[in-house]
Amino acid sequence: VPSLIEYLGSAHMGVGTIMRDPSLIAEYRRDAPSMLPRALASGDPDLLQRIVNAVYLPDHTPLSSILPPEWLTPGFITALLQELPAEVLKTRLPGTQINHRIPVSDTEREAAERVYADYFAGITALQESEPTGRQVDWMRKALSIEQLRCDDATAFQP
Predict the structure, then answer these.
(1) What is this structure's pTM?
(2) Are 3 and 134 in contact (CB under 8 A)?
(3) C-alpha span between 17 and 5 (Å, rounded)
(4) CB–CB of 21/65 below 8 Å?
(5) Which residue in 116, 101, 120, 100 sits closest to 44, CA to CA?
(6) Predicted confidence (pLDDT) per residue in 81-137, tens digit
């Protein structure tokens, strides 16, 4: 699931990469919609953060192009964030703040309640000693690099 979320968040699609290979956009539009339901079913807080980013920073990710249109309003995101317990918001989406000045319609609130209940109600607050998904990704990457160094070192011994 973390790989799905990374793909949906388009971390692999920096501007330079897209300039070198514009076909990535078409590939994303083809593959990402079928990945979204599985990623949502995981209830992963990293996906929730990426959904928030897709609404507030739509030019930074193509995720906004595959989300349901009713999710793409600041009112919906505000209502969705209001569904989260304060401790979950603080530990799982650090730095994300609820803008209480954004008006929320009844339709947006109802949609947010459904999305929260269907996908994100299982998110629990992060314990101090528990690494976040991004920290785990960095640890995996560091271990992979170290393993490659070890493999290289043993490969060149006489």
Answers:
(1) 0.72
(2) no
(3) 19
(4) no
(5) 120
(6) 999 999 999 888 888 889 999 999 999 999 999 999 999 999 988 765 555 565 556
